[in-house]
Amino acid sequence: MNRTILGCLCFSLLILCPFNLMAADDLVEADKLYDQGGLENYKQAIDLYKKALAANPDSYEANWKCARAHREYGDTAKTEKVEGWKKICAEYGKAGMNFAQKASELEPEKPDGYYYYGLNVGIYSDGVSIFTAMSEGLKDKTQKSFEKTYSLDKMYKDAGPMIALGRFWQVLPWPMRDRKKSLKYYREYQGTQYFADNMEVHVYIGELLIQIGGKENKAEAKGYLEKAAKSDDAFYQERAKALLKKI
Questions:
Q1: CA torsion sign, 81 to 82 to 84 to 86?
Q2: DSSP output for 22-34
Q3: Which of 123, 208, 216 has its CA nearest to residue 225?
């Protein structure tokens, strides 16, 4: 009897091990493609993450990384103004949310799933509009996801949770938006080593200070936006120049 059980276990291991090894290889290759950046590489990375998940659906790593790749694919389509980018954002943001949620369910005390859930909601909102996303009950889910990430590790992904919460409270429609909260998180981010080279956040803070109004705020905003307007990032360079015209 014991020999029979042992034989079955060995047979199962012989079957499962090759699949696990192949899934690990797919993750390594997907990571390489993701790190190279670009729409086509993100798309290929997504396909490989999905392949790894087909072999092991409960892989925490494959789920959160697949969510991350979906977000980057949608965000890149938006910033590069790819034809049909809104449809892409809606599709990939929605799918990314599902992978991120699975990751947070698998490892509820790790930040990856929560963080990329919130970011994918943002991409989804870019595609369908923030009002549609809110009508689907995503406002509270996004807030909780970002706040959970912040509580677990506010320095995660180069202090990404600070940016995420700052932007979250900034873009909500009235009366839910809270510009004071938004500025609080941005000010905290400004105290990190990452702010100086992040032109995206320079634009966000510049925009927020213009929205708050006042001579001093506009003067401060001008400095951030002038710097962003000279950056190599075409998308945020264009946004900075447009905002400077409002000062």
A1: negative
A2: HHHHHHHHHHHHH
A3: 208
Q: Which two tokens stand for residue 200?
A: 């995206």
121-140 pLDDT tens trace = 999 999 999 999 999 999 99
Choosing among 3.20.14, 1.25.40, 1.10.1200, 2.40.10, the CATH entry for 154-247 is 1.25.40
Instruction: Let me know: does 48 contact 27? Beta carbons within 8 Å.
Output: yes
Using CA atoms of 129, 130, 131, 136 in order, give the dihedral in degrees to the nearest 10.
Answer: 100
pTM, two decimals, is: 0.89
112 contacts: CB under 8 Å, gap ≥ 6 = 60, 64, 67, 68, 100, 103, 104
| Beta-carbon-side half-sphere exposure of residue 189 (alpha carbons within 13 Å) | 30
Q: Under the phi-then-psi rule, with left for phi > 0, alpha for psi from -120 to 50, and beta for the rest, what region is 150?
A: alpha
Measured CA to CA, the distance from residue 2 to residue 84 in angstroms comes to 61
- Angle among Cα 7, 11, 16 to the nearest 5 degrees reads 145
Q: Are 38 and 76 in contact (CB under 8 A)?
A: yes
18-150 is a CATH 1.25.40.10 domain: yes
